[in-house]
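RND family efflux transporter MFP subunit structure dump, as promised
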Amino acid sequence: MNDSAELLKQLRIERDKPGQGTPPGRQLLYPLLIAALVLAIIAAAWFLLRREPAPEVRTAQAVPLASGPAAASVLDASGYVVARRMATVSAKVTGRVQEVLIEEGMQVAEGQVLARLDPVDADAQRALAQSQLAAARSQIESVQAQLVDAEASASRLERLAAGQLVSRAQYDQAVAQRDSLRAQLATARRNAQVAADQLRIADHGVDNTIVRAPFSGVVIAKAAQPGEIVSPLATGGFTRTGIGTIVDMDSLEVEVDVGEAYIGRVKAKMPVEATLNAYPDWKIPAEVVATIPTADRGKATVKVRIALKVKDPRIVPDMGVTVSFLEQAPEAGDEQPRAGVRVPSGALVERDGRTVAFVLGDDDRVRLRQVQAVPSTASTRDVTSGLAPGELVVLDPPQDLADGDLVKVAGGG
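structure tokens r here:
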């Protein structure tokens, strides 16, 4: 037991003896490293807290200019998309709706069945007219049979009267009977014709219970449901006047109100650039169709019709639209290549008397560029120098935005 205790004492480390454990220099190094790390964290936090957040901006891409000289806007106006062919379809007769075969947004062709009314009354009228026609034709057959016998009798009595075998009075009576039946036959034939005409009218009555599309288009409103009463003469109450409304999308155009003081600038066939309020980046080519020769004395405006040169399902009636009346397009032989780019008007600002733009770099920092620009339309400007196609420019830059500032693109794009 004593030997074991002695062995354990020999294995124990004496930490208080000089030359053993951690050296004194290293003991001072650890606190210094910890203090330096804490100071670095505090400095980084102070820098992040004191730094102003990057402003959020919107950007647009500079697009190359098309060939030919730019057509400047001479007048801007606003209006709405309208349809030249639009109809609220109704039945010709008053009746109860049996079924409706349309829904909003549905494409329909000319002559397509849209709805049916209850045909009970119309079918009864047709059946009555058909019976009257059959009765009239039967009357014709009866009179024809009697007329054949009367004509034979008159011929026979005529020979007998010539031989003085019968009296002249008997012969005259047979002739009168024959002529009477001939008149009855003519009347029966006219009655049959009238009955046939009545049957055709009854057929139209049955057909009037079927509502068809007057032209090809798109259904924009469904006005009736099965079981409702519809009438083309309804003026109120619970009676519907129509089944639905159809618009011919190929007839869409723009109507704008132009002030009387500027109507002299608008000419027929004048090129126009239309911009829908719903799609502000989409420039639609158009041209002036006509100026309506009347003025609105209340608004002191004149209405102008504008034809759209693009057919697109995104264009729907009653959309708001802004139009720019452009100068007349150049002749085909006058077109020359153009250098420069086109940007939104909001990308160019005035700083220290210079026209500048802020270009976004790959490091999310902006670079100040001095540019030379000319007006293009109300919403765009043509830059002849200072920008390259494809570069991203900041739209409506903040007043305090400077060269080299870090920015954040709205929407992450």
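DSSP finds four helices and 24 strands in the chain.
lmk if u need the other ones
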